[in-house]
Amino acid sequence: MTRLMYTTLLFITVSITGFTVDAELHQNKLTVDATDRENWAYVNLTEGETVDIADPANSMAWDLGFKRTQVIVNGGVSGPGKTGALALEDISFEDVLEAPEEEYVSDTEQITTFARGDGWYTYTGPPNHWVLPNPKIYVLRIPVDPTAESEGPYYYAKVRFIGYYENNETKEGSGYISIEYVLQDNGTRLFVESEPTSVDAKGKLTTTWASIKLK
């Protein structure tokens, strides 16, 4: 499903005789070839894959960008998507069950959100010169329609970095960033499975992007 599809769904009104909303968590592990020192590799978290972006400064089709150890979000100075992120520390990936409501920041000319604090990685220096992910969990807040005048609705993703090498055990082949993430597509801030919701057949439902899933 593309970001454009999400936006279209915001304005559909349907009459129904029986409808079930089946919310879903998108869980994925992804390795991104970020070895190019000149060009960014872009990722669409909904699609769960890297995407070719001709004009990233005007595209909402990507969520994260990778170039060696640099990571950007589609927001702030990096893109038009108005995506924000924040870092959580001293908590495991599994224990992040709900996205925070506030304090999301986007990239600025001075610093990207993933470089704030001690950043997403630690460089060990000599003799190994390894790049090792820090034990942080990042939460993304991604507007469904970044062009809307009012804020929200959003969908949320929690992300952790799990490696920087093509072979993370031997530390061979640098510039391959591996992440694990969970993306919630039901419009809540919860990273837990929700039960299907039945809708009364007599009513009309003004649907949001979370109410219908395109198969």
Rg over C-alpha atoms, rounded to the nearest angstrom: 18 Å
State the end-to-end distance: 8 Å
Number of strands: 15
User: Strand content of the residues, in percent?
Assistant: 35-45%
Helix count from the secondary structure assignment: 1
Main beta-sheet annotation: 5 strands, antiparallel
- Proportion of residues in helical segments: under 10%
Q: What spatial form do the alpha-carbon principal axes imply?
A: globular
Q: pLDDT under 50 segments (min length 5)?
A: 1-22, 196-215
SSE pattern:
HEEEEEEEEEEEEEEE
Give the strand order, joined by hyphens, for the main sheet. 3-13-12-11-8
User: Structural class given helices, strands, pairing?
Assistant: mainly beta
Give the overall pLDDT as a whole number. Answer: 83
Count of distinct structural domains: 1
Task: Describe this structure in a few short sentences.
This protein is mainly beta and 215 residues long. The chain has one helix at 3-9, and strands spanning 13-15, 19-21, 25-33, 41-44, 49-51, 64-67, 70-73, 84-89, 121-123, 131-133, 136-143, 154-167, 172-184, 197-199, 204-206.
Describe the structure.
It contains 1 helix and 15 strands. Helix content is 3%, strand content 39%. The longest helix has 7 residues, at 3-9. The chain has one domain (3-206). The chain has a 5-stranded antiparallel beta sheet, with no helix packed on it. A 4-stranded antiparallel beta sheet has the order 5-4-6-7, with no helix packed on it. Strands 1-15 form a two-stranded antiparallel ribbon. 29% of the residues are buried. The chain has 215 residues and is mainly β.
